[in-house]
Structures are given as C-alpha cells and as structure tokens.
Request: fold
Amino acid sequence: MSPVEALGLRPAADGGLDLVLAGEAVRLLPSGALLLSARSTLVVADLHLEKGSAFAGRGQLLPPLDTRETLRRVAADAAAQAPARILFLGDAFHDREASRRMSEADRQALEALGRAAELVWITGNHDPEPDRELPGEAADEVRLGDLVLRHEPLPAPAPGEIAGHLHPCARIATPRGSVRRRCLVTDGERAILPAYGAFTGGLNVLDPAFSGLFRKSPVVAALGDSRVHAAGIRSLRPDRR
Amino acid sequence: MADAAADSHLLPSRFADWFAAQGWSPRAHQLEMIARARAGRDALLIAPTGGGKTLAGFLPTLVELAGRPREARRGVHTLYISPLKALAVDVERNLARPIREMGLDITAESRTGDTGIARRQRQKVRPPDILLTTPEQLALFCAWEGSRLYFEDLACVVIDEIHALHASKRGDLLALGLARLSALAPGMRRIGLSATVDDPDVIRRWMGCGDRPVDLVRGPPGAPPEVDLLLSNGRTPWAGHTAQHAMAEVYDAIRKARTALVFVNTRFQAEFAFQELWKLNDDNLPIALHHGSLAPEQRRKVEAAMARGELKAVVCTSTLDLGIDWGDVDLVIQLASPKGASRMVQRIGRANHRLDEPSRALFVPANRFETLECQAARECIAENRLDGEPLRTGALDVLAQHLLGCACAEPFDEADMLAEARSAGPFRDLSRADFDITLDLTATGGYALQAYDRFRRMVRNPEGHWTVRNGDTARRHRLNLGAILSPEMLSVRIAQGARLVGGRKIGEIEEGYFEMLDPGDTFVFAGQVWSLAGITGMDVLVRPARDSDPKMPSWGGSKFALSSHLARRVRRMMSDASAWAVLPPDVREWLGLQRRHSRIVAEDEMLVETFPRGRRHFLVAYPFEGRLAHTTLAMLLTRRLERAGAQPLGFVCNDYALAVWSLKPMDEVDMDDLFARDMLGDDLEDWLAESFMMKRAFKGCAIIAGLIERRFPGEPRKSGRQVTFSTDLIYDVLRRHQPDHLLLRCARQDAAEGMIDAARLGDLLARVEGRVRHTRLERLSPFAVPMLMEIGKERSPGAAGDAILAEAESELIAEALA
Reply:
C-alpha cells in the first residue's frame, strides 16, 4: 500500500489535510492545530505564551505581542471548528512566571476561550506546574480511546501517541529553491505536532532528535500560507546551520 | 605652486627642510590645508590618489604639535577615522617616517578591532597625540564613561576616504559620533579627505557641524587615465558574465604589466577568473586571489606579498576598491561590467600613484551589452562625468543605537541631545516627533502596549536625564554596536578522515549559497575545487576534489547596480547609429541585426518586444535601469499580467532588460497601461509587505536598533541543539498588531532604497510614460537572446512558498508510485 493510501492523506476544503492516525480520522489545520473530529477536540502544542516578555526580561525587547497573536489564532480556530474541548499539549507558557506576566486583555481572551470550550492543560517542561488560576484542568497526559496525548514523545515507538515538544520543521527543496515551514510529522502510528506559538522556532525533522521515533519512514504535513502540504522524506533537506 | 614667502609663513623650517630633502616641494593644496587649519576652519580636501592627500590631512596637526611642548598637550590632539582597519594601520606606518625623519616628539598610534587589550588599555590611560581608528571604534568611545574627559582637548578629526563612508548607515552613525565629539570638544576642527566626486557639496553638508561652513580645497586634477577596451580576437559573446572568451588576452596583458589588479564584481567571478588564469599560467606567474570570503589571514598574506612587490597580479572584488597604496601597480583590469563611472575612477586610481603619469586600465566586457556599457564608462571617465549620490536622510534605527550608546557614557538631557543630533548632516531635518519615538524605541522597544516599563534599557535619573538601566545593558550594547551587517556566514573547513570532523578553516561563505548544493557536489573556492562533504553547525566540511568541471554556482549578480548616469549614456549610444563607429565590429553587427529584425528606439523611449517561443510567450522590456529596479518592475508587471489573464510563469532580469514569460500571448496587452505609473501605489505596497526583502531589512534594522542581538539566540534545547527562531516571526506579529511601529518604517525605507530601488523605478516609469514602443515579433530578437540565456541560470530567492510546496507534493506521489 502506498503512503498516500496508508495515511489516508486527503486535502480538505478548508485548506487542512485529513489523515488517519492510529486508525482514527484527524485533520491538521493550516494554523497547526490538530482537530480530532470524532471527539470534538482541538489540540494545540507548544504555544510558549509570553516568550516575548521573557526575552525582554533578559534585555532583548521583542514585541510583547506574541501572546495576543497566539491566542487570536486559537480563538479563530475555535470559532471555526467549535470544539467542545481545547487541549494544550504542553509548553503553553514559556516559563513558570509567564502566566503572571500576561496582560489583562490577554487573560480575558483566555477566559473567553474557557467559556466556549473545556480547556485541558497538559504539562510541559517549560510549564510543569500550570497556573491554577487559569480556567480549565491540568493533566500530565490524556488518553482518548487509542490515542495518548502527552507533551514529550516517548523515545521508543509509541502507537497512538500525539506529542509536541520537538517543534518539527521541514526544509523542502525543489529546483526552484527551498522553503522552511513548521510541520506535523507522522508515520500513521504516532504524530509530532508543529509548535503553534507565534514566536516558536523549529527543529528540522532530519535532526537526530527525530530518529528512532518512527517505525516506518515518516511523511511531513507542512504548513503553507493557506493550506497544508504533504511532502515525502525525499524532498526534505537538512538545515544549513 | 605656492610662492616661497607663503611657504615659509605656513611651513616651519624643519618641515620645509624635510620636503627639500625628499626632493619635493609642498603642493599648493597641502599649504592650503595648513592655512585653513590656522583660521580654525573645517575643510574638505578633494584630490585624486597620488596627490599627497593623507599627508595634506595631517600636516596642520604635525605643524601644530611640533610647536607645542609635550607638557602643554593633554589627551588626543587628532583623531583619524578610516573605513578600513588596514588603512588605519598603514597610515600609522606612513606617518612614522616624517615624524622620525623630522625628529618630532609626536606619537601616532592605531586602534582597531585587532589591537591587543594591553595596547588599548594603555591608549586610554596615556593617549597618543594622534589616534588612528575606524567608525566602529568611535562608536565604542561614544559609549564609554570616560569619553568626555578623554576628548575634551581634541583639536581635530580627520575622516579619510569620506566618499566611501557618507552615503550609508555607517555614515549616519559616524556623523552622530562626530556630533558627539563636537559636543565634548566644541573647538574641534573637521577635515575630510575624499577622492574625486561628482558633487562635493553633498559631502560638505554631510560632514559639517550644524550650519558651520566647510571649506572646499581641491588638489591638482592629475593626468587623465588611459582606458582601453579589450576588442577580443575571439568574438564577444551574446550573453554571460564570466568573460571566459577573453582570458588569454587578459593573461597576456598581465604578463606585459609590471603588476596588475584584476577587478571583478562578485566573489564567484573572482574564483572563476582565478581558475581560468591559472589554467593558462604556463609562466607560473605569481597570481593571487582576494575577496571577502577568504579567511582574514589569507587575505592579509596576499596584501603583504603585494606590498613587498612579490605578486604579478591579484584577482579581486570590491575588497580592494579602497586600501593601502601599492606603488608597483601599473595596470587595472576591469573584468565585466563597470556599473558606474565613480567606482571605475576609484579602481583605476589604484594603478600608478604618481600624479603626473596617467593610470592605465583595460576594460574587458563579458557580453555585447557590456561592450556598450564599457564604452559609455570610458567616455564618462574621459569627460570626468561621475555618478552623483544624493544626500541621505539619517536612519532612525542608527539614531536609536547612538542614543543608547550616549546613555552608556553619561546621562544626557533630551533637548540637548536633539540639538546635538540635528547638528549631524544626515539628521539636520530630524523632527521632534521622530526623535521622541526613537527615544521610546531605545528605552522600551517602542510598543504601544507599554508592557515593558520594568524592562527599560534606558531610564530617567532624578535630574530627568536619560541613562542606561544597568551595567549589563551597557556591556551588551558595546558587544552589538556598529552599523555593518554581514550575512550569516558559515566557516568552510577541510573534513578530517572519513568522519565529519572539521579541520583547517579556509574561509567563509554566506549561508544562502549552500542552499543550492548537496553533499558530493563540487564547487570552486579559494582557488581550488572542493567537494561538499556535509554541514555541521556553523561549519561547512569539504574535501579537495579533482573535478575539472565543478558545478559552478549560478552567477548571483553584483550588489552594485548600473548607475543611472551610465545607463543614460548606454541608451544614448544605442539610439544613435552614428555613435556606433567606436564599437567593435561584432557589436556593431549585432546592433544592426537588432535594427533589422526588431527595432532600435530613441534615447527617451523604451522598447518592449513580445514573441512566442516553444509553448511559451515572452515579453522583453529594455529600460536599462539596473537589476534592482528591473526586478521590482518585473514583480509588479507579473501581478498585472496575472490579472489580465496572461498567466505569467516567471521572469528574469539583468542590468539592461527584463523578460517575462507566460502561457497566454501578451501581444494585445496595452503597454501604456501595463507600464502605467500607478503600479507604484497599492500594488507595490501589497507586494512589498509580504516580500522577503522587507523581512531581511527588518532584521537588519532590529539589530542596528539593538532590539535583537547580533547572535540572536535560538532556544537551546536539551542536547544543545538550536531551534532557530527567525526574526520573520517577529516581523509578522508586529505587522499585524502594530503596523506603525518605527522599525517597520525603517525597514520599509531600507527596502525601498537598497533592495527595490523604488525611487529609480518611479523615475523610469515617468520617463517612459507615453513612450513605450511595442514591437510584436514572430521570434526572439538579437537583444532578447542574452535574456533568454539567463533563464534557468537564476533561482529566485523569494519564490512563492506554496508553489514550491505544491511541487514537492507531486514528489510524494512519485514516491508512492515508485
């Protein structure tokens, strides 16, 4: 069976890409959120809220606008998909102090999200102890049927796992040049989600950090400007630095 | 020649004797400089190389110091600033001789980024009389707590090669530094030394302190240079940029010269020419290579060998446009397009530094259009018609950097600082409002949210003066200052053994270059052929390769655009068949063919050709306004043609023309509408906002303003891997949430000036309005041939991301079917 068939890759009308993950139909949205349609759950990984102000505290005055932008994107996805649950897959906040640095407006935006959907905060290495004053529940991992959602991928094959943490990025080269985009990487058994935050960088999927995670040669679903594009491993290139 | 009475009045006998002992008599402009200094006037000296310009700049200082006992001196008397570190060191050496031979009790020392710590420390405690340094070192001085005391007795500042400095951000920063020096030492005189320029007033306005006038002193003009055009025995090619056809003749010219400098426009042309010349080098002539990617030690080795007169020729890029004097050079060869008359005069001036003998140069066009350009450049040089540079408006990101620097040195008063900044030429029209937002950018990042009050880099002290927040902020500022931005460079190292371990470093290449190469690919670098073994971190690992036909990098284009002045000459020469007589026969014949098969238009008209070829349709326009303006024009034309339903597929540009190809014919397009000026409105803004050029410009501005640091960190992850966090993300967020942010404005201005040449495009569209001459052809014209040959050699760095992704997607399907 070809990878296209095995993964059930099919472009969706909204620019997303449908795929089958551990037997379950899911959709990667162009924003980088993963929609578990059957469970009315929207999954977003590695928001790193307040990363801008974290840099500012160390002397580099990056715009204090990343939280506002990232939450705007979550709100837009939530409005379009109307999920019952929004699941933050760890590292939602850049550091332990981050939620207390949020502006009042951003905090209200988060509370509005909490009124529209149930919020679940999976812990990550940047935010091991979620702020209890935030709306929603905290958990180290969440099981939904055959799916396991956790922040850091297990180092060995883990069927049904959906994780974040690694910030996968793909550099795709063609004779016309190359582009580097955030991506989801999957072999159909497990998936690593792209980082969702406005100020989050990426790690090339050819980095050794990804090796050993997949039993079969994985494919990437890269986030284009308005749609998700699938690409085979052969069109990927390592980063140049 | 000044008369003897005036000499004795201006020149102390010790100096006059020394001149006599050299067999020289002081030149009029040298005495003039002493006279201006006596009168306390600022002065700009314009003189060609070989005119004793540097000595003229220092004579007033030497005379003044010679008459003043050491006890009466405090601190640095004269500060000399050169754009090149090497030049500062060279001038130190050259000054030593007259000081020694006249037995003067004067100390002159250089201070650059390469100066050792001990010497730098000593220079701060015991300042030399004359300190020779660079603009970046001056910026460091301005950010130093001791600057006020150190410079309070500064009498004079000498700015060398000022023509190469003023019209840039580096010039903006230097102008602000000069304003600071004048504030610390109000009596300080300013002396500018410049090569011949088109409009000295631009430099006088740049270097003056507020409204204080700057006197103009001119050296003797020197003998006009002799410039020849290489009329290749082989025929000049239709296209290409390497001048491979002419290498045998170039080699012959080198053989007959005493020492030759071979100038090219890009590093890769330099590598190519070097390879080709060595293939021909049966006499084993010492021919060397010099460009900005070679390791500094290697470059210094070449320079030293040149200084000792051991080399026959150096193939070089603009890295040797300026620099120390090499007396033995008697021939300058310009391989490929000259781009502008001023740069050529500068390069030709590197040959023969004796004023009374003409410099000799040989222009080698690489294709037929370049033959026209070379001939036009010869005529400009003969008539001394140089390219003008307009007066710059100072960049606010540079001002932001300077403000923080001043706050590191001592608290400043806002109103005083505004007045001081306005006394710098590029900032004379600085508005209060712009000053205020720049101050806010420096202090808090300039965000509407006011979120960073507690992270301020600059705070007000109890007196209401601005001062740096703490020592750490000051230390980081000093590590990041300067207005020179270099692209991310990777070190090229020789791979050791079978494993990928980096050995000896052979140089540096821009990161982007390696986008085109895969492991196993061969390329030429540092004069040898290498095979790419792999890339680890910031290192490119290579192995020597015996490949005689390396995969040559595509010709990336020169960073210099064809000057408008030269372009006008080329258009005029082409339009007037009676002027063709000076051209070589093969080029004349080509022009004749063009006239027969298509047409030749008048000087103020623009030719547009449309024709089918293969299954594609082509539109070729010939504005002759330089690659940058053409690229912008082509982007905008493509958008319009898209809307008109022509389905354009791509375009290429060079300095002379642009070609667009499409699926549908473009014969019926109304060319007056297509080239209508209104494209500079929304079309331009829409495209620009999304373009990679804005993002690149934004990064530069953010670095200069100090909002991000030069080595912008990724997020270090567990195993030390770096997650790259691109400034593009910051750009996108800022553009959505605070589109009026000062840095976006700065980036817009930089992109419009440096990357898209918006002003020149505007001039072009105005010039051709109602004068577009459209010719429908059945096949391509002689002029179009070089354009079509460019296709396929170029890759477009800003190619639409999604289109590339879509192509890659088809590869997945191929993979699936395999």
